[in-house]
Design a protein that fits this description.
The chain is mostly helical. The protein is about 55% helix and about 0% strand. The protein has one domain. The chain is rod-shaped. Keywords: Signal.
């Protein structure tokens, strides 16, 4: 009786195709796939002016809390690759 073990072995081309596919993925640019937007940089003068404007706001202003949340998001985006 003949052995059918050869019927169950993958062709030698399958590993080659897999390697080529993975190498193409590794070479592709990930700039378009970045899940995080770039962090906008502000000059020192702009940051000082913003700090003065925030300091002039009324105590407990909602925008101050919102700016704090925005600062956390900027730090998280900056930490992403």
């Amino acid at each position: 009786m003949k052995s059918n073990a050869k019927c169950w072995t993958p062709p030698a081309v399958a590993p080659l195709i897999a390697m080529l596919w993975l190498s193409v993925c590794a070479m592709a640019s990930s700039e378009g796939l970045a899940p995080y937007p770039p962090v906008v940089e502000y000059s020192a003068a702009e940051q000082m002016r913003a700090a003065d404007e925030v300091g002039a706001l009324a105590e407990g202003a909602t925008i101050v809390r919102m700016l704090g949340d925005y600062a956390v998001l900027r730090d998280q985006a900056r930490a992403c690759p």
